[in-house]
Design goal:
The chain is an alpha/beta fold and about 425 residues long. It is about 45% helix and about 15% strand.
Length: about 425
């Protein structure tokens, strides 16, 4: 479907005269190769899905690459001839992608009036703030971690460099100019207020969520389904399985996880690691070979988020997220929790917030501690269902949608009194 035909999607949504109830036309700026099956994209997807269920119309503007998703209105940039594959993380090529994204966003704004620009990541927020001011459209910023800290995590930036100082100022400008910011954790909110001088009333915590009707425990499936899945993956019937779902990268702790697996196998030979994700599969396959554990590590490559990931996770006995970043979100933890798996993570503020007292927390960056906690979790299957209950009770997208729509209503109706806005913010934080 071309862009001209897609415009008709916007005409179907009925409009009413009641500000709080009328559907909003939202332009969502996503500076990434949407859709691919990992955290940032999952958050965008789930937000759009719940907004559509509530009757709002959402257009996603994103990079040229990525998979189309049925039911989503996705507009893509022009390609750049020298870079045709996915962009994951920091890259100098993203400058060209972001310039094209800005031009595509401008094109869409010239053709249609939107009520709100909902921007993801700092690059998206910068585009949204500049164009939002030009077209007088309010902006909300979906903050999923510090721009400069992520670039350091990706080994793309040095903390003592001039580039870091410049980008840090740019990051603070984006943060402080955004009318409403949705950090994905309480730790993200603290960072924005304390380190980037954001006005507290503008920062509304919107933690990652999970669809607990899609991600379910193994007991929700027929036994034959789980047995067939294990067989297809080459996992023996009596083996224990540790599962990981997400990007494969050093800042995600992938190398440390393989080293921990080597230590686990010295004590328990019947354990397999199901490593689901991309990129860098060849790098980590070689590392598994060097560690002598290649027969116990199963690399699946990219796994479909909604079609395959729930079943693959349900094969597991324990789930793990050894992410090293202390500023980024960790949405995969909620998927693990929804499946009712005992869950191990490095001890970070976000992991503590999501897992509560039921999680197994290893010392950040410590391979021995990670292996120890995984071994304990393998012996503690009873800890999984309390995590499932926690996911159901505290991390539903329906509740999150109220925070999003309340911000849209506030920004599009400035006649509301300051006292009303402040009282709504206080209730949200509680």
């Amino acid at each position: 479907m071309d862009d001209a035909s897609k415009e008709h999607l916007h005409e179907a949504a009925p409009m009413t005269n009641t500000p709080q109830q009328r559907p909003y036309r939202v332009l969502m700026v996503a500076p990434t190769s949407f859709f691919a099956d990992y955290g940032c994209h999952v958050r965008i997807y789930e937000e759009v899905k719940i907004l559509q269920q509530l009757g709002h119309t959402v257009t996603i503007v994103t990079y040229r690459n990525g998979n189309d998703v049925p039911g989503l209105d996705i507009r893509r940039t022009l390609p750049i001839p020298w870079r045709r594959h996915y962009e994951v993380g920091s890259s100098r090529h993203k400058i060209a992608f972001d310039l094209l994204l800005g031009l595509k966003t401008l094109q869409l704004l010239l053709r249609r009036r939107y009520d709100v620009i909902h921007a993801h990541l700092h690059e998206g927020a910068m585009i949204a703030l500049l164009l939002g001011r030009l077209f007088r459209i309010p902006v909300v910023f979906d903050f999923q971690g510090s721009l400069t800290e992520e670039m350091i995590d990706h080994k793309f930036l040095q903390r003592d460099s001039m580039a870091y100082q410049l980008l840090r100022r740019v990051e603070e400008w984006i943060d402080t100019r955004s009318p409403v910011i949705f950090p994905s954790s309480s730790e993200g909110r603290r960072i924005l207020v304390e380190k980037f001088n954001c006005a507290p009333e503008r920062v509304r915590t919107l933690s990652d969520r999970v669809d607990t009707d899609v991600f379910q425990p193994a007991s929700y499936y027929p036994d034959s389904t789980m047995q067939a899945q294990r067989t297809a993956l080459g996992i023996p019937p009596a083996a224990k399985v540790i599962v990981y779902l997400g990007l494969l990268a050093e800042y995600q702790g992938t190398g440390l996880l393989l080293e921990a697996m080597q230590r686990i196998l010295r004590q328990r030979s019947n354990v397999y690691l199901l490593l689901m994700g991309f990129p860098g599969i060849d790098v980590y396959q070689q590392k598994a070979l060097d560690l002598g554990i290649q027969d116990k590590v199963i690399f699946t490559g990219r796994v479909s988020y909604r079609e395959a990931a729930p079943r693959y996770l349900a094969v597991g006995d324990v789930a793990v997220s050894p992410k090293l970043s202390v500023t980024e979100s960790a949405g995969k933890l909620l998927n693990y929790m929804a499946v009712g798996l005992p869950t191990v993570a490095f001890d970070t503020p976000v992991a503590r917030e999501y897992l509560g007292v039921q999680g197994f927390l290893a010392e950040r960056g410590n391979v021995e501690s990670l292996a120890e906690q995984l071994l304990i979790a393998l012996e503690s299957p009873q800890t999984g269902m309390p995590l499932r209950r926690r996911a159901v009770q505290q991390f539903s997208w329906r509740a999150a949608s109220e925070t999003i729509v309340a911000a849209y209503a506030e920004l599009t109706h400035p006649q509301r009194s300051k006292e009303t806005v402040q009282s709504k913010w206080i209730i949200t934080q509680k």
